[in-house]
């Protein structure tokens, strides 16, 4: 970004305000490039304004800053020393924010655990990540064995409040060290892997690219039903706290509570995963409050073109979609203009990132030709905590997807490389078939997989969720007419719901 771009960015976001800039500088000096810096700045400048709103009410900037400090001291008094891996198993509420801030202020390593994971998966992750203490929602902790964690376990509520009371005695001075958090991958193919992400100049550059492309402001009110333990939800928490904006958190997503959160708080930003958009569109609820949003930011899984177009037709051209992952960071962002002009695109490259399409030998392919997607980003992870890595070519990291760039620099993602189906010698990806079927007015959700076939090696099978009348023959005829014979699912099964994880990603392994 050039100097003019930086000036425009700080003016639009509100960081040009001298008092805000000074407060943020003080926060960074005290706490380093962490969530705690933004909260300290908010407490210095606007102590009594709302920072976080959840089901239990409003937490001001001053309250959030003070309580997170005494929680950090309280954790240390309970034997949770600097460098300890602190597991955080919380849904979206102020307790998640407090635990994250206490970790930042106490020099702990926050490890964000998937609240949708089964108990056995969590036990495996806790052991693999060497988690020495755990903070979580009582009902989630109740499912874990008593010996799952070698150190203390604190339930949000009475236990967590007791930690705060201990910290209120000011037993020592907080001397944090800037540490990188650990996020879990989506776990769509097994137990989630831990991905350590760096803090500092490199990761800050990645965040600046996000701010440059999506017009967030310091006076925004963010509604975040996307899970905070996931990179997309956490990114919005970080952006909001850094800008001094207010965050409204909902513990579980459902269309009615999301619309109410937007309406009741005069929200301007909604952060979601694509399946949430699908469920909002499929509901019979009045979407009028959503038309007043300035920004609807989507990421976490593929955004089908029919969903993007229907959303903008009904709620306005204010939809932004980010393509990236826990591992590669931010790759591309599709603006409303991109989504109108080239439905199905993942957008153009985020400022500060690099995207290349490479062939099997690692060489760039011509524009318009399909290949493997590699990304260079300031938000890329360093490594898997349990060992292993993504394929790297120079400074570029494999996303695991296949796609192409068009002449305007827009990325189109065909699908996961390992989702490719080979049927009768033809290579078929599920994405185009799924997007086409979603255009049918009777189809609410759909998944296409490959199943074994004695004659063709594999054949396509479609799982379809309906809100209307459609037969298996109708599904096949619709695909044949638009895509051709080798894209037609030979098997069609109608289901009530598709298996998805907490971030909305389809669990194809559970479909048979």
Overall shape: globular
Low-confidence stretches: none
User: Roughly what fraction of the amino acids lie in strands?
Assistant: 15-25%
Q: Please list the strands of the largest sheet in the order they lie side by side.
A: 2-1-10-9-11-12-13-14-15
The helix count comes to 16
Helix/strand/pairing class, anyone?
alpha/beta
| Mean model confidence by pLDDT | 89
Indicate the percent of residues in helices: 25-40%
Topology, number of strands? 26
* Cα gyration radius (Å): 23 Å
How would a textbook summarize the main sheet?
9 strands, mixed
Calculate the terminal CA-CA distance, rounded to whole Å: 48 Å
How would you characterize this protein structure?
The chain has 512 residues and is an alpha/beta fold. Helix content is 34%, strand content 25%. The protein contains 16 helices and 26 strands. The strands form five sheets. The protein has a nine-stranded mixed sheet, sandwiched between helices. Helix 3 packs across helix 4 (61-77) and helix 4 (61-77) crosses helix 5 (94-106). The model has no long low-confidence stretch (mean pLDDT 89).
């Amino acid at each position: 970004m050039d100097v003019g771009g930086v000036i425009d960015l700080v003016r639009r976001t509100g960081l040009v305000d001298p008092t805000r800039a000074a407060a943020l500088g003080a926060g960074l000096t005290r706490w380093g490039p962490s969530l705690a810096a933004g909260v300290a700045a908010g407490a210095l400048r606007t102590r009594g304004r709302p920072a976080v709103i959840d089901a239990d009410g409003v937490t001001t900037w001053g309250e959030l800053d003070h309580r997170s400090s005494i929680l950090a001291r309280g954790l240390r008094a309970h034997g949770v020393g600097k460098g300890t891996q602190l597991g955080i198993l919380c849904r979206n509420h102020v307790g998640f924010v407090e635990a994250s801030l206490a970790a930042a202020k106490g020099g702990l390593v926050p490890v964000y655990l998937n609240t949708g994971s089964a108990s056995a998966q969590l036990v495996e992750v806790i052991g693999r990540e060497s988690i020495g203490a755990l903070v979580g929602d009582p009902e989630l902790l109740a499912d874990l064995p008593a010996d799952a964690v070698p150190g203390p376990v604190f339930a949000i509520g009475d236990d967590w409040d007791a930690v705060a009371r201990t910290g209120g005695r000011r037993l020592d001075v907080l001397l944090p060290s800037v540490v990188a958090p650990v996020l879990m991958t989506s776990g769509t193919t097994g137990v989630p892997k831990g991905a350590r992400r760096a803090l500092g100049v490199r990761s800050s550059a990645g965040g600046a690219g996000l701010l440059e492309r999506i017009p967030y402001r310091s006076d925004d009110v963010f509604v975040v039903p996307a899970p905070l333990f996931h990179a997309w939800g956490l990114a919005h928490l970080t952006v909001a706290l850094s800008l001094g904006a207010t965050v409204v958190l909902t513990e579980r997503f459902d269309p009615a509570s999301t619309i109410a959160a937007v309406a009741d708080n005069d929200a301007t930003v909604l952060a979601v995963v694509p399946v949430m958009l699908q469920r909002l569109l499929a509901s019979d609820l009045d979407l009028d409050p959503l038309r007043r949003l300035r920004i609807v930011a989507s990421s976490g899984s593929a955004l089908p073109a029919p969903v993007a177009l229907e959303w903008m037709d009904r709620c306005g051209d204010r939809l932004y979609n980010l393509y990236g992952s826990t591992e590669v960071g931010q790759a591309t962002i599709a603006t409303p203009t991109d989504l109108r002009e080239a439905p199905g695109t993942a957008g153009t490259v985020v400022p500060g990132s690099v995207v290349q399409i490479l062939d099997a030998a690692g060489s760039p392919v011509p524009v318009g030709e399909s290949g493997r997607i590699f990304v260079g980003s300031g938000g890329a992870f360093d490594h898997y905590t349990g060992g292993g890595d993504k394929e790297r070519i120079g400074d570029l990291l494999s996303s695991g997807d296949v796609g192409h760039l068009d002449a305007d620099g827009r990325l189109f993602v065909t699908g996961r490389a390992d989702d490719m189906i080979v049927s009768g010698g033809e290579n078929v990806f599920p994405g185009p078939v799924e997007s086409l079927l979603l255009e049918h007015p009777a189809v609410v959700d759909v998944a296409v997989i490959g199943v074994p076939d004695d004659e063709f090696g594999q054949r396509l099978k479609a799982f379809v969720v309906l809100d209307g009348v459609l037969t298996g023959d109708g599904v096949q005829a619709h695909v044949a007419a638009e895509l051709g014979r080798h894209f037609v699912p030979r098997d069609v099964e109608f289901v009530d719901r598709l298996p998805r994880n907490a971030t909305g990603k389809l669990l194809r392994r559970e479909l048979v």
